[in-house]
Amino acid sequence: MIETEFLMQIRELFTKQLDRPINGVVKAEQLDEQIIWTELDEYVVTRELDRHLRHFFETYLPGVSHPDDPSVAGKIGIWVSGYFGSGKSHFIKILSYLLGNQKAVNDSQTKVAIEFFKEKISDPLLYGDIHAAVNRNTEVILFNIDSRADTEDKEDAILKVFLRVFNERLGYCADHPHIAHLERELDSRGQYEPFKAKFAELTGSSWEEQRDAYGFCRDEMAKAWAYATGQSDVSSVQSMENLESMFTLDIANFCKWVREYLDRSDPSGDSKRMVFLVDEVGQFIGNNTQMMLKLQT
Questions:
Q1: In terms of domain of life, where is this protein from (predicted)?
Q2: pTM score of the predicted model
């Protein structure tokens, strides 16, 4: 009885319930509503984290505020370092919430990420920098590179995994980049929806369900391509046969595709930007200098 009363008295000392569920390991791609709310609500900005947040936003803001300034053009990459278990994954996940001003929902209550930090940040200048950053039109892609990369192709793994998550965000095929490129080209011409509708009519299945096994439905793809683009049947068959061989992936092309997407998704000219936040990249690269050079590029 005395022990129970003692525990009840201890509980009364704390604002939050002591027996509430807390995720012991932060995972980059775990993004359901309750987890987002809990991670933002529970995040404690210590003196050290205050310093890191300050450093990040002091570095980040000039780049997005003056994108055409050559003095900041090459300073768009930020490396978050620290020993194992120091909270790097948690830190970049919180940054992803802030930069995208992520909406969090808890029962009937809804808040955006910046609102959680009103009481966590005591310095009005730092809070002002964070507020200025989150009020920009930014799309954030957060991912764990080790779980997304193709382990059989280390040489171009960095670029390929960036393209994979980018294609996935746009709703294109993640596993076959040349198929995603077909989708991108059709989409840019306003022909993607007619292509999908015709493919579904011919196969009885949606394009999204069948595209990973595209080798089994090349004839239907060619017919849907001819219908959507107006090309002849012969030309469409040749296009389908040459899809993979005609696809070229390099850094310049990737940047062009991202730029085209941003321009198309924000025709107002509000300088929309995309931020890639990559978890476990140091462990993935290891001592591979070629991969490090490609990441820097």
A1: Bacteria
A2: 0.86
